[in-house]
Amino acid sequence: MTLTAEEVETLEALPLPENGYLDNARALFLLSCYTGLRYSDLVSIRPEHLRGQTLRLTTQKTRETVTIPLQARALPIVRRMIAGEIRAVSNQKLNDYLKELGERAGITEQIEVIRYRGGNRESTTLPKWQKLGCHTGRRTFVTLSLERGLRPELVMKITGHRDWKSFKRYVNITEQTVEREFARVYAMPSLLKIAQ
Questions:
Q1: Are 57 and 70 in contact (CB under 8 A)?
Q2: Mean per-residue pLDDT over the chain, rounded
Q3: Which pTM was predicted?
Q4: CA–CA separation, 39 vs 77, rounded Å?
Q5: 71 Cα distance to chain centroid
Q6: Which residue in 126, 130, 98 sits closest to 111, CA to CA?
Q7: What is each CA distance from 50 to 106, 136, 148, in whole angstroms?
């Protein structure tokens, strides 16, 4: 599951008490959405990782060294982390806080969750906020970067993915994006209006 650009903006704009637990959780999550970092790397950012407007660190899971150019929205969050203004919380607690944030932000689009148990398909429909978790930020970064035109191999370089098979699980291009891009490429004005 990924968030849309509009849902990320809604989270950014959500009024919250400054320096409270939800403000802290939001900062951690948004930084993941802006950088594609896994939780374990996100909470390990240290001053030596910041090089101008770039993060350079060795990931804990794969031991891959990644260089991440920082968006203008990410740099202040990284500086707040380095200054100790943003606190690390456990992965599970952060997941709980993100669900609360998602509900408060009104991220209620219904999504279908499919599971297979013993060869049987089970399907449930839930509001999107109920599935919001730490890894959603990484998936959101990948999807939004591709939607905005970054080449897949550049996104893979930033996230540290080595092969297309594992990377493609992170891609969740929306139907609206497909329609909008198709209309743009094939100059179909009627589709452009529908996709907007």
A1: no
A2: 90
A3: 0.84
A4: 15
A5: 13
A6: 126
A7: 34, 24, 25
| Three-point CA angle 128, 134, 140, nearest 5° | 65
Q: Record the tokens describing residue 37, joined without a space.
A: 């970092």
Distance CA(184)–CA(74), nearest Å, equals 30
Burial 166-176 (b: 16+ CB within 10 A, else e): ebeebbbeeee
Helices (H) and strands (E) in the chain, counts: 10, 5
Which of these, 175, 120, 116, 107, lies nearest to 147 by C-alpha position?
175
Write out pLDDT tens, residues 97-142. Answer: 999 999 999 999 999 888 899 989 999 999 999 999 999 999 999 9
d(CA 32, CA 22): 15
- 87: closest CA among 27, 16, 41? 27
For the chain, the residue count is: 196
Confidence check: pLDDT of 79 > 90: yes
CB-based contact 71:36 (threshold 8 Å): no
- The token pair at 30 is 């948004």
d(CA 40, CA 89): 11
Beta-bridged to residue 55, according to DSSP, are: 50, 68
Query: pLDDT tens digits for 19-41?
Result: 999 999 999 999 999 999 999 99
8 A C-beta contact, residue 74 and residue 37: no
